[in-house]
Amino acid sequence: YGGNSPQTGMDCSGFVRYVFSNVAGLQLPRSAREISETGEHISERNLRPGDLVFFHTMKRAFSHVGIYLGEHRFIHSPSTQSGSVMISDMQEKYWAQRFEGARRLLATPLSAVR
Q1: Is residue 103 within 8 Å of 38, Cβ to Cβ?
Q2: CA-to-CA distance for 73 and 37, rounded, in angstroms?
Q3: Are 85 and 73 in contact (CB under 8 A)?
Q4: What distance in Å separates the CA atoms of residue 102 and residue 65, rounded to the nearest whole number?
Q5: What angle do CA 37, 41, 47 make, to 5 degrees?
Q6: What is the DSSP secondary-structure string of the chain?
Q7: Which residues are catalytic?
Q8: N or C terminus: fewer CB in 10 A for the chain?
Q9: Are strands 40-42 and 86-89 parallel, antiparallel or unpaired?
Q10: pLDDT tens, the chain, 114 aa long
């Protein structure tokens, strides 16, 4: 855990930090838990592309974060060891049971930020 760059691998929060820094110029805290305390709380039904979605995957609250893409999908980095970024469906049983909440950092959806 703790990966911060594409060259050395990124964990979930490292991936989110990298994307928001390079696309929107935002500097986010280091951990998923700290990131969960930023921005505006939103309900799952109000999710828009670019919102952050949080899950409890390590028997503790807000231990995983991803970026919502739309249509119940989100992109995330499961671990630094996997060497990959993946798209998952929030309606899959694993994710649905672990959903913790969502935050909005940008007034404009990330898909519209250039």
Answers
A1: yes
A2: 22
A3: no
A4: 9
A5: 125
A6: ---EETTTEE-HHHHHHHHHHHHH-----SSHHHHTTSSEEE-GGG--TT-EEEE--SSSTT-EEEEEEETTEEEE---TTT---EEEETTSHHHHHHEEEEEE--SS-GGG--
A7: 12, 64, 76
A8: C
A9: unpaired
A10: 555 666 667 889 999 999 999 999 999 999 999 999 999 999 999 999 999 999 999 888 899 999 999 999 999 998 755 568 999 999 999 999 999 999 999 876 666 655
| Two structure tokens written together for 45 | 């039904």
Half-sphere exposure of 83 (CA within 13 A, CB side): 1
The residue count for the chain: 114
